[in-house]
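Re: your question from the hallway

Yes, I did run it. Sequences:
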Amino acid sequence: MRVATWNINGVKARIESLLTWLAETQPDVACLQEIKSVTEGFPAERIAEAGYQCVVHGQKGFNGVALLSRLPVEDVVTGLPGEPDPGQSRYIEALVTGDTGVCRVGCLYLPNGNPIATEKFAYKLAWMEAFEAYVRGRLALEEPLVFAGDYNVIPTPQDARRPEAWVNDALFQPATRAAYQRLTRLGLTDGIRACNPEPGIYTFWDYQAGAWQKDDGIRIDHLLLSPQAADRLTASGVDRFTRGWEKPSDHVPAWVELQ
DNA sequence: ATGGCGCGTCAAACGCGA
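Structure:
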């Protein structure tokens, strides 16, 4: 079972790229963030023609997440239980059944948190705290779990081409990294790093200042796996090639393959 | 040192992202 995540930065602006990517890489489950669409406006029909059913948690103008699956889904959870601001659509989850067993997939869009001297950063940390509490409860189920999405966290200096450029950014603050590390210490495995230990793995390049041309990237999109999912991990990667497409998202997809 | 781009909203700039 292949589970992928992609911050698509506007699903309507990126629908042709999304359909091309689905056809080329054939994920079983695709977690999308920043769809920037209300649920009713989501292009579910064109995606259904490609063989995927959609569960969507939309919002007007900003944020918004969706889960696309070509496998049966049940147990849909819309919104993160205990989240600090339910008006922002940042979480959706479903139980997916594949040939080799079930997997519960959470799709998240963690707040950016900039600028750090404002309530936006406090909101980011509050969201991470609510997420950690929720993850604790989910881990107690002892089942295969994948929490996939745009975490807006640079976990270590190896996850940025120029870490020094991010020291005053919410994505690389000590408090941000500590909160992310608390998640991994609960027993979650970084699915990308587990198979790709080398430096230079990035998932985001800014649109500005030629960041892509200079490979000035950061790794902020992650798939965290419960022990039961990590035991089934056979491969993972980043679909870097989509950043070179016409009208690209500033993020690229990341994915894990589970036995 | 700064800003640089792109999307959505809405019909001109502006909020927001990272």
